[in-house]
Amino acid sequence: MVQLRLPQKSRVKPGKTVNVAQGAKTARTLKVYRYDPDKDENPRTDEYTIDLSKCGPMVLDALIHIKNDIDPGLTFRRSCREGICGSCSMNIDGKNTLACTKAIDDVKGDIHISPLPHMPVLKDLVPDLTHVYAQYASIEPWMKTDSPAPSRERLQSANDAELMNGHDGHGAAACILCFSCSTACPSYWWNGDKFLGPAILLQAYRWLIDSRDEAKGERLDQLEDPFKLYRCHTIMNCTNTCPKGLNPAQAIGEIKKMMVERG
Ligand code: SF4
Ligand code: FES
C-alpha cells in the first residue's frame, strides 16, 4: 500500500514559548521555524512575543531583536537590510519574500516565518543554496565574446541597456538572486534537479539580451532541453511572489520565443 505519511523527522512540532512583552503598548507574536542539524530532533516552531517598541518596523528587525536580546541561537541570513543582497529571503505569512522589506504592520495577526520552501535546511531559516548556485554557474553568467577586445570598455547604447534594466528598473538585470521565485514554483519543487527554475532562467535571459554578449546561439543550445527550460508551465507563482516586482515568467516566455524564432 502507498505510504502517504511524511517522514517522522519532517514533522514540525510545537517548540518553546517566550513572552518578553509584559507591559508593552504594542506586542506581536512571531512563530519561527527552528531546526538544529546537530540535534537528533524534529524541527519545531518557537513562539516569541515581543515589544514592538524594541525593534524597527520590518520583520528582519524583529528577528534581529530576537537574536540579539532573546535567543542568540536563532539563525538566519541577512546583510544589506535594503532589499539589495537577496540574503534574507524566507517565507513570511505564507509568501516568499525579503524579511528586510516586509513591514511587520503588513502582516495581520501572528507572524509565521519559515525557510524558503522545498529546499534542504542547514539551520533554522537558512536554506542550502549549493544546488541553485551550481545551476547558476551552469548558465555561465558572464559576458562571452569572440571579437577582439576594444581599447576601452565594450559600450552599450541607452536603449540596449534598457532592455536589461527595464524602462522602470524592473528588468532582468535587477534580479538579486533571492530565489523567492524558484522556491515558490511547483515545477521547481518536483523537478528542481533538472529544471533550472525561474531565477536561473531570468539570469539566462539577462545574458541573452545583453547586446555586448556574443554567445546567444551557444546559450540557447544549452537551454534547449526538455527539463532545463520546458518544465516551466506558466504557473506564474514566480512573478506573483518576486519581492522586487520582476517578471521571471515573462522572461521564460521570451526565451521560448527565441527558441521558436531560430527554428
Ligand atoms: S526574480 Fe525576483 S524572486 Fe526571483 S531571484 Fe530574482 S529578485 Fe528574487
Ligand atoms: S538583507 Fe539584503 S535583501 Fe534583505
Topology, element by element:
Layout: E1 13-19, E2 27-34, E3 44-51, H1 59-70, E4 89-92, E5 95-98, E6 111-114, E7 121-123, E8 126-127, H2 130-138, H3 158-165, H4 186-191, H5 197-208, H6 216-223, H7 237-241, H8 248-262
The structure holds iron/sulfur cluster and FE2/S2 (inorganic) cluster.
The site of iron/sulfur cluster has 14 residues, from helix 5.
Structure write-up:
- The chain is an alpha/beta fold and 263 residues long.
- It folds into two domains: 8-127, Beta-grasp domain (Ubiquitin-like (UB roll)); 130-262, Fumarate Reductase Iron-sulfur Protein, Chain B, domain 2, CATH 1.10.1060.10.
- Helix content is 29%, strand content 15%.
- The protein is built from eight helices and eight strands; from the N terminus they run E-E-E-H-E-E-E-E-E-H-H-H-H-H-H-H.
- The protein has helices spanning 59-70, 130-138, 158-165, 186-191, 197-208, 216-223, 237-241, 248-262, and strands at 13-19, 27-34, 44-51, 89-92, 95-98, 111-114, 121-123, 126-127.
- A hairpin with a 2-residue loop joins strand 4 and strand 5.
- Helix 5 (197-208) packs across helix 8.
- It starts with 12 loop residues before the first strand and ends with a helix.
- Bound molecules: iron/sulfur cluster and FE2/S2 (inorganic) cluster.
- The site of iron/sulfur cluster (SF4) has 14 residues, from helix 5.
